[in-house]
Design a protein that fits this description.
Elements (H helix, E strand, L loop, with lengths): L17 H6 L1 H22 L4 H20 L5 H13 L1 H13 L4 H13 L8 H10 L1 H11 L11 E5 L2 H13 L4 E6 L6 H15 L3 E7 L2 H4 L5 H6 L4 E5 L13 E2 L3 E4 L3 E5 L16 E3 L2 E5 L3 H12 L9 H5 L12 H4 L15 E7 L7 H12 L3 E5 L7 H12 L3 E7 L5 H8 L2 H6 L3 E5 L2 E3 L3 E4 L3 E5 L5 H6 E9 L4 H12 L2 E3 L2 H5 L3 H10 L7
Parallel strand pairs: 2-3, 3-4, 5-17, 8-14, 11-12, 12-13
Antiparallel strand pairs: 1-9, 2-6, 6-7, 7-9, 10-17, 11-15, 13-18, 15-16, 16-17
Helix pairs in contact: 3-4, 4-5, 7-8, 9-10, 16-17, 18-23
Length: 543
């Protein structure tokens, strides 16, 4: 790729530097938070003469909070974390607990999103002949599909071709091709957008498509304000005719802003083509900028009815702030119909795959989105279902390994049954604390027979499960608390699609570039990494 042509740019030199950080809303928020902490400590010391009464009240309050936590519906690992916090800091810990549990600033979002999900429950009807064909192949797959559908409008499709990309560069190349082919609309929803070669090239095409009359919409997460884009960037894109929103901008005091981030990566073109996976819109994801060695990422392209599900996911998030949402216009018009997953008519009655004269892509595709505002831990449960039903192997790539008790037990149980469970994790970390926390799980996993490998050339950002040559998941869902509990996520579950062999091949090729973790390497790990993991494990659910 030509690194001299950076593509279209809207930022002025220095706009993201120190001046912007200090005087932006983010800088103001940090100052206000610091002032709040100082005020609380000053008030505490001002009334120091009442310390015996305060300590007695704190002890009674701590006992109450412990009993409350033990009877709450929190995940057991999260209970332990909050017990530690409240035992050490009874008053401030309790205030922090109630603050995070109250969802201040997210109640309206929760209510609006639930309203949109209820409104669109039947927008994409499940073709009964697809379920029948899937049940003929494997009834267990239908059970999973029914569970996934209860969390939203997520049909199974039997008409979708899936292409797997083993690197971000491969996805980027095909993205440019598909973007240029857009005739009706382009929807983009990404966690990170940063100006550079990748986004510049994409932006050039988006601006051209707007001039051609294509409806172009871009949505990115509000945490981009911290490091990659200025607060007024949506306005800058609107000058090009691009509709743009920042999901959940960070605001002082009004939200627990590290929770409920939009971690999805979705591109939908005309309702016929969709992309998802780990690749954000920044140069390190295509190895044009090196931060942590070689960046290993993955993605998939879906061509067919399954693209409609990703269009619906995007529209649900986009319309949180809209009072007159238009769903049918985009789900029915240019792309496949709401029953696009159906089998060809000639074979529908028999519940059989298409005949030779009406070929269809092999296998079944089930896109799904995971919402942190409901009670379903959909992303984690799909992963656990793969582990529980595996017979030969489960091969996993993930950038982080911060596990709750359930997921750790599922990994260990699969290995103890004789399943070949292999994990590929980063060899060069992007953050020291998650890296140390991952290593805190190594000893227990290895003892059960789980095999762990670290990617020596750099950082693995892929989120991949592949099992038994017949099922796989590629999406945005990491093996950590943020993805499994606190973020909006998405993925595609695949059963017997042709690309599954490509996913397993990529895993094996990546494995050849890894070092294996052994009990000896765990024993010889640097003392400060062990200490960090040992200490931080107590507050892992808060990270």
């Amino acid at each position: 790729m030509d690194t001299t042509d950076r593509g279209l740019s809207l930022l002025k030199k220095g706009q993201k530097g120190f001046f912007h950080a200090v005087f932006s809303r983010v800088g103001i928020m940090i100052v206000l938070l610091v002032l709040q902490v100082v005020f609380l400590f000053m008030a505490f010391f001002r009334f120091a003469q009442f310390l015996p009464h305060v300590l007695g009240s704190a002890a009674v309050f701590t006992v109450f909070m412990v009993l409350y936590l033990l009877n709450s519906r929190l995940d057991p690992t999260a209970k332990i974390t909050w017990l530690v916090v409240i035992m050490l800091l009874p008053v401030f810990g309790a205030l922090l607990f109630w603050y995070t549990q109250s969802d201040i600033g997210h109640r309206a979002v929760h209510a609006r999103l639930q309203e949109l999900i209820d409104e669109t429950k039947e927008k994409l009807a499940q073709a009964p002949e697809v379920i029948e064909a899937l049940e003929n192949e494997n009834p267990d797959e239908v059970s999973l599909a029914r569970y996934v559908r209860r969390s939203g409008c997520f049909p199974v499709y039997a008409d979708t071709q899936v292409t797997y990309f083993p690197l971000g560069e491969d996805k980027f190349e095909q993205m440019l091709v598909q973007l240029k082919s857009a005739k009706r609309y382009i929807f983009m929803e990404y966690f990170i957008v940063e100006e550079g070669l990748m986004w510049g090239k994409i932006l050039e095409i988006l601006a051209e498509k707007v001039r051609e009359g294509v409806d172009v919409r871009v949505m990115y997460d509000g945490t981009c304000e911290f490091s990659t884009l200025p607060h007024n960037y949506p306005e800058k894109l609107k000058t090009l005719g691009i509709k743009c929103k920042m999901f959940s901008p960070v605001t002082p005091f009004l939200s627990t802003h590290y929770n409920y981030r939009d971690h999805r990566k979705i591109l939908v073109i005309d309702g016929r083509t969709a992309f998802t996976g780990g690749v954000n819109l920044a140069d390190e994801y295509i190895n044009q900028r090196e931060r942590f060695g070689h960046w290993k990422d993955t993605a998939i392209m879906l061509e067919g009815g399954a693209a409609q599900s990703f269009a619906l996911m995007f529209l649900q998030m986009w319309n949180i702030t809209e009072r007159a949402p238009e769903f049918d216009k985009y789900l029915d018009a240019a792309g496949p119909s709401p029953k696009a997953g159906s089998l060809p008519a000639a074979d529908a009655e028999a519940g059989k795959p298409a005949a030779a004269e009406s070929p269809r892509p092999a296998g079944f595709v089930l896109p799904y989105g995971d919402c942190p505002l409901d009670s379903d831990k959909l992303g984690e449960r799909v992963y656990m279902d793969i582990l529980n039903r595996s017979r030969s192997y489960v091969h996993i790539m993930s950038p982080y390994l911060i596990l709750d008790g359930e997921m750790e037990t599922a990994l260990k149980f699969a290995a103890e049954k004789g399943v070949d469970v292999k994990l590929i994790l980063p060899g060069i970390p992007d953050k020291p604390m998650p890296y140390a926390l991952a290593k805190s799980h190594y000893r227990s996993l290895l003892a059960s027979g789980v095999k762990i490998y670290e990617y020596t050339p750099g950082f693995v950002h892929a989120k991949v499960f592949v099992s038994d040559d017949c099922r796989a998941v590629v999406g945005t869902i990491n093996l950590d608390y943020r993805s499994l509990y606190h973020h909006f996520e998405c993925a595609a579950y695949m059963y017997r699609t042709e690309c599954i062999s490509d996913i397993e091949k990529d895993f094996q090729e990546t494995l050849a570039r890894c070092r294996q973790v052994t009990p000896e390497t765990v024993k010889n790990e640097k003392w400060h990494v062990k200490l960090t993991g040992f200490v931080m494990k107590a507050v892992a659910p808060l990270l």
